[in-house]
Structure formats: C-alpha cells, structure tokens
Amino acid sequence: MSNLDRQATPSVCGGRGFVVAEPVRELLSPRRVPLGESTEVRRLLPNLGRRMVGAWAFVDHYGPDDIADEPGMQVPPHPHMGLQTVSWLHEGEVLHRDSTGALATIRPRELGLMTSGRAISHSEESPRPHARFLHGAQLWVALPGAHRGIEPHFQHHTELPEVTAPGLSATVVLGTLDGAASPGTTYTPLVGADLTLARGAEARLPLEADFEYAVLSMSGEAHVDGVPVLPGSMLYLGCGRSELPLRADSDASLLLLGGEPFEEEIVMFWNWIGRSHEEIAEAREDWMNGNRFGEVKGYDGPPLPAPALPATALKPRGRVR
Fold this sequence. Notes:
One of its GO terms (molecular function) is metal ion binding. This protein has one helix and 26 strands. It is mainly beta. Strands 2, 14, 15, 16, 17, 19, 22 and 24 form an eight-stranded antiparallel beta sheet that branches. The protein has a seven-stranded antiparallel beta sheet with strand order 3-4-5-12-7-10-13, with no helix packed on it. Strands 6-11-8-9 form a four-stranded antiparallel beta sheet, with no helix packed on it. The two termini are 24 Å apart.
C-alpha cells in the first residue's frame, strides 16, 4: 500500500538508542490519512512519538468500511524500495499487481508479502465486483542493509500456522510465535500474529524477552496487560517480557507486532526506505523518469507522481521524535 499523503514528510528512525529495554504501556493514537478515492486509514506508525517496533516501520489500520456502493480501495501504481509490505485482511479482497508480473487476489487471513528489495512498483484495488465491507491492516518491514538490494519478489500464502489456547487463536502472519513459523520470508528476527479472543477469555501469550512489542486492536474490547485498547489504537509494550496477559470483554481481534530492535538508522520518505538524502533523491528521480521501478501492467490509470523533497536534507536519526 502507498503513502498517498501529498505533503509527505521524512521519518527518521531506527537504531537502538531509543529502545525501551523494559516493559512499558505506551498507548499510541492514530492519525487519519485519506487513501485513494474512498478509503481513510488510521496511521499508527510512524507515530508522533514512536517510529518503529522491531523492524516494523509502518502500520495503517482501515475499516471496517461499507464499500457496497463505493469503488473501495483504488491505489494506483507507486514505487517501493528497502522494505517489505504486508497486506492483512479481516474483510474484503485486494487485487495486487506489481512490476515483477505478480497478480493475486488477497482474501481475509491470507498473507500478501511483497519484498521490494532494490526497487519495485505495484497497485492495489478492490476487485469489481467486490465484497460489501473492507477491513484490514497494511504494514511495512524495514529491510536490513545486507538485504535491501535483493531482487524484488511477491509471495501469497493462503494457509498459515496457528497457535491455540482456551479462548485464544493466534494466526502466525510473519516470523515465529511459540514455535510456529509463518512460510513468509523474513530478513530480521520478528513476529506478526493475528489474535482472536473469545468473549470472556483470559490468556497469557508467550513472548521473546529480547523483542520489543506492540499490539494493534482490530476490533472488539480487549485488555492488553491490563490496559484497555480500543479498535484503531496501538499499545507499545517495550522489551523484557516473557509473556503477555490478555483479556477480552467481547469477541476481539488484535495484531501482535514484535521483533529484535532494528540496529540501523533509516530514512523513510513517501514509499521508500533508505539510509541517506542522496539515496532517496535518486529513487525519486528514477521513479519520475520511468527508470528502475518497472511497470505495473493491467492497471487502468496513470501511476502516482512522487511528492517534492523537503527543502532541507533528509538525515537518519533515532527511533522516537
């Protein structure tokens, strides 16, 4: 998914200097951002106060939206580099096309994983006809330096492993949870898991003490380590936890995101992750001149133009503002 904000600002993040090395409970509120013709998203990362959770560098939550009489998601071709995109749906479908020639319809609880590597472009749209409701999350994972120049590729996994306990079912979207490993390719130690809690359920989810974590509420009423987390908000948990207490006041769905704190400082501007102003400026020039990022065939419409670079040079700094 693209960042369609025409007033794009640089996000400077990464490095271990601002990692919270002990358990915390920091509630993050979303920023509302329009996406395409009829979709609005709630942006949780990058946030005013916190920029990354492990290698997770971008989190949008959208819906549930009634798009029965709307075009739904319509995101024209746009570029990415230095990251992986994770498409995750609870309702609806998204048609993915990219410059490698990949074409796939992603449905609820299926993993759409695009690794941009050095350069890729893609589009996303609600199929015609499409389901009445659209509800999901779009996430980015920063690629470490050793892998950010790899060849771009796309993976679509329709079956994913689950971890279960009384009142709890956890689908492992990416990485590993309690010994269950997603088939999606990762390049840094991390986890993404979709948690479904039954009304009245109380559970303790095993965690890695060296990881930092956050939990995004997708729907329902749940308490995470005693903190009520409403749909569309995210609770940052820091590091140092071996388990996470969960309680549901109603049927609820959560996204658990975590990983080893990302070692490198990065610059994130529009739909690119790099390490310097010069790298971002080169990517912008290549995109605007039709170089390097390839062509998305089959989408009915022009590609997105890139926003102008800021007047001052982009510099990588820390994980928090």
